[in-house]
Design brief:
Elements: H1 2-17, H2 26-37, H3 45-68, H4 74-98, H5 103-124, H6 135-143, H7 155-179, H8 182-198
Length: 206
């Protein structure tokens, strides 16, 4: 759930500090592009397009790396991708501290990291583990609940994902408002490092 919390931090940084752009939630970017194209003030077509392009580049890179690492176990592949994400976020952290106005560099670095991670998690297909979007998680939580006649399968994991995203977004918003972009990005880097350590060294990634 650490990476889900990191996503909340990341989107707080990008939306609140980089001009109302998402770098983890690409659904939000598509909607924002529509808003901006309609002339709604406060939204950037260019920023959202840059984020989409970097995210897709990260997903393509993840696909290429999957071929290179196909002989390794799922945990080994996930660990290596998370290390790459950590390096990209650490670079973004350095940029935020040294050159805070470098908006597009930050968007590109963060969205590239998120594309790498999302494509890898999708390939590993861990049930009910989402790292950036909670729509399907919330749908499953409600439609499989006892209220809907279900048996609440994996309700704890689903609820934990929602709470992790909420906690990350809350922490990110507080940090962005009070200390700028560098510190929440540093927290994201540290969180990703913790996720690397949490990946099991054998068996499956689930």
């Amino acid at each position: 759930m650490t990476v889900t919390a990191v996503s909340g931090l990341i989107d707080a940084v990008s939306y609140l500090g980089l001009g109302h752009v998402f770098t983890a939630n690409m659904t939000g970017n598509v909607v924002i592009i529509g808003f901006a194209a309609a002339g709604v003030p406060g939204f950037s077509v260019l920023g959202s397009l840059a984020s989409l392009a970097a995210f897709l580049a990260g997903a393509v890179l993840a696909g290429r790396l999957e071929g290179v690492m196909r002989r390794r176990t799922a945990p080994q592949r996930l660990r290596r991708i998370l290390v790459l994400e950590m390096v990209l976020l650490a670079t973004a952290t350095a940029v935020a501290f040294v050159a805070p106005p470098a908006v597009y560099a930050l968007i590109a670095l963060i969205a590239l990291a998120m594309g790498l991670r999302n494509a890898t998690v999708r390939r590993l297909a861990v049930p009910d583990v989402t790292t950036t979007v909670l729509t399907l998680t919330l749908t499953g939580l409600a439609s499989d609940s006892s209220l809907a006649g279900g048996s609440n399968p994996r309700a704890g994991r689903r609820l934990a994902s929602v709470l992790a995203m909420l906690a990350g977004a809350l922490a990110g918003a507080v940090l962005v408002q009070h200390v700028g972009l560098g510190w929440p990005l540093l927290a994201s880097t540290i969180g990703t490092a913790g996720a690397v350590r949490a990946v099991p060294r054998s068996s499956s990634a689930g």
